[in-house]
Amino acid sequence: QAQLMESGGGLVQAGGSLRLSCATSGSIFSRNPMGWYRQAPGKQRELVAQITRGGTADYADSVKGRFTISRDNAKNTIYLQMSSLKAEDTAVYYCRGGLSFWGQGTQVTVSS
Fold first, then answer.
1. Among 58, 11, 10, which residue's Cα sits nearest to residue 68?
2. Which of 10, 13, 27, 90 is most buried as measured by Cβ atoms within 10 A of its Cβ?
3. pLDDT tens for residues 15-55?
4. CA separation, residue 75 to residues 44, 46, 71, 80 (Å)
């Protein structure tokens, strides 16, 4: 049984927006920083954004000003609001909890 469940991926035109969600258990959520990673075909998985338990966020340079990570402590869920999407944002997006927990991934495809 997956311990992190992503949702919200899909197909969007360049310039559009999507919001990804990642729900997890309370034990994972409350004890770990959380993050979003992505992996494009033929490329290594890379960090997109991460957020500490206290809510401090950090972003890859490629998404700064366009993506926003947030966490809802009542729902044990993190979000990734993606705006001004580009074709190069196309990838499978993964949620990560701490160092050990990964979601199954959700596909984001941006058409140009």
1. 58
2. 90
3. 999 999 999 988 888 889 999 999 999 999 999 999 999 99
4. 31, 26, 9, 15
- Alpha-carbon 80 to chain mean position: 5
Tell me what pLDDT residue 26 has. Answer: 86
Q: Using an 8 Å Cβ cutoff, are 8 and 107 in contact? A: no
User: In degrees to the nearest 10, what's the CA dihedral of 53, 57, 63, 67?
Assistant: 70
Six-digit token string for 92: 């499978």
- By percentage, how much of the chain surpasses pLDDT 70? 98
DSSP per position, 68-104: EEEEETTTTEEEEEE-S--GGG-EEEEEEETTTEE--
Q: Would you give the DSSP letter of residue 15? A: T
